[in-house]
Specification:
By secondary structure, the protein is mostly helical. The chain has 3 domains: 57 residues; 92 residues, DNA polymerase, domain 1, CATH 1.10.150; 153 residues, hpI Integrase, Chain A (Orthogonal Bundle), CATH 1.10.443. Helices cover 55% and strands 3% of the residues. It has 16 helices and 3 strands. A 3-stranded antiparallel sheet has the order 1-2-3. Strand 1 and strand 2 form a beta hairpin. Helix 8 runs antiparallel to helix 9 and helix 13 runs antiparallel to helix 14. The N terminus is likely disordered.
């Protein structure tokens, strides 16, 4: 019997013994008193049964957790009533790695929840929605980042509930966390003539990075992981593998006619297109150094805007970008027209004189 159940039983039995201590033989006892003692015994049984059932729900047995595969043979036995967040986080990350989720997702999940666990290294059942909301509000981050961290916390709590660290079948404290109001901010895009001037002045590797970003809408992290074997020059599309995509979903990105001209010199190339994160940093630094107003995520925002204007097909553009049609319509609709789009996708390499 568990410690909770044993403590209750000993205490309760002690009280019952006190009531019955010194009692005379049954035939000498007043009938009314006998009825009272019988009633007390019945109440005692009902109370003990209720306590045991409640304890089973709140504190799952170690055997159940172990049978779920959450403890390795070499791991020391845990006092599961502690249900420390750091231990549950370790289990969660191992499970996600075993599910072969994208490195980017795992990195983000680990970053968010390591910060959370540092603030709440305690029994997960003791953490309240008020505590978590106060912590989230105290973080010096934008609403979108706060909502992303909230999503990771919900993932942790749902994992804990699934494997018995929290009561199954009930909403968790994390489910009650309020979403921060995210207006999204103003979308900044580049003018076609500004991009053309930067591309034609850029060094080779910078030019390649900027052209891919501007004419595919791929995320910087996806471009940096790209290999030439994933660029199909013959069929004119780029494969973004699931393990390289932010959304962990494979997709095909078209090589549009003007991008084909920018990529033409590399048709025999092999291996990674870029070798370090600094390649992206250098490209953005070069662009900003050209006296051009370069908004955050300028290339992806610009591609989405001009591609949507050119095709009038949000579902198609969403598939190309690994995004949702709703987000495209909300953020990029009517920021540019067909004429602007034609100018953007007409930007081609300048013919360089050999002299």
């Amino acid at each position: 019997m568990s410690e909770t159940k044993t403590t209750f039983s000993v205490r309760n039995q002690s009280r019952m013994d006190t009531l019955m201590r010194g009692a005379a033989p049954p035939e000498a006892v007043d009938p009314t008193r006998l009825q009272s003692l019988d009633l007390l015994r019945a109440i005692k049984i009902l109370l003990e049964r209720a306590i045991e059932e409640n304890a089973d729900k709140r504190f799952p047995s170690y055997e159940k957790i172990e049978s779920a595969g959450l403890r390795s043979e070499t791991e020391p036995q845990l006092d599961l009533r502690s249900r420390q967040t750091r231990l549950i986080l370790e289990k969660l990350l191992k499970a996600k790695e075993a599910d072969r989720l994208s490195p980017r997702y795992l990195q983000t999940l680990r970053s968010h929840l390591t910060r959370f666990v540092a603030a709440f290294d305690t029994n997960i059942g003791f953490i309240t929605v008020a505590d978590m909301e106060n912590w989230l509000r105290a973080q010096p981050i934008q609403p979108r980042s706060r909502n992303n961290i909230r999503g990771s916390i919900v993932t942790l709590f749902h994992f804990a509930r699934k494997y018995g660290y929290l009561q199954k079948g009930e909403a968790t404290e994390a489910d009650e966390l309020a979403m921060a109001k995210d207006s999204g901010g103003k979308i900044g895009i580049l003018k076609p003539e500004k991009l053309a001037s930067v591309l034609n002045e850029a060094p080779e590797r910078v030019r390649l990075f900027l052209a891919l970003g501007a004419f595919t809408g791929m995320r910087s992290s996806e471009i940096l992981r790209l290999e030439w074997g994933e660029v199909n020059f013959e069929r004119r599309f780029i494969t973004v593998a699931a393990d390289k995509a932010k959304t962990a979903t494979r997709r095909l990105v078209p090589i549009l006619p003007n991008l084909m001209l920018w990529l033409a010199p590399y048709q025999a190339a092999t291996g990674l297109l870029f070798k370090t994160r600094r390649d992206a940093d250098r490209a953005i630094a070069f662009a900003k150094g050209c006296q051009v107003n370069w908004p955050n995520n300028a290339m992806r925002h610009s591609y989405a805007t001009y591609r949507l204007a050119a095709t009038a097909d949000a579902a198609r553009v969403a598939l190309e970008m690994g995004n949702s049609p709703q987000k495209l319509m909300r953020n990029y609709r009517e920021l540019a027209d067909e004429k602007d789009a034609a100018a953007w996708f007409s930007i081609c390499p300048r013919v360089r004189s050999k002299g």
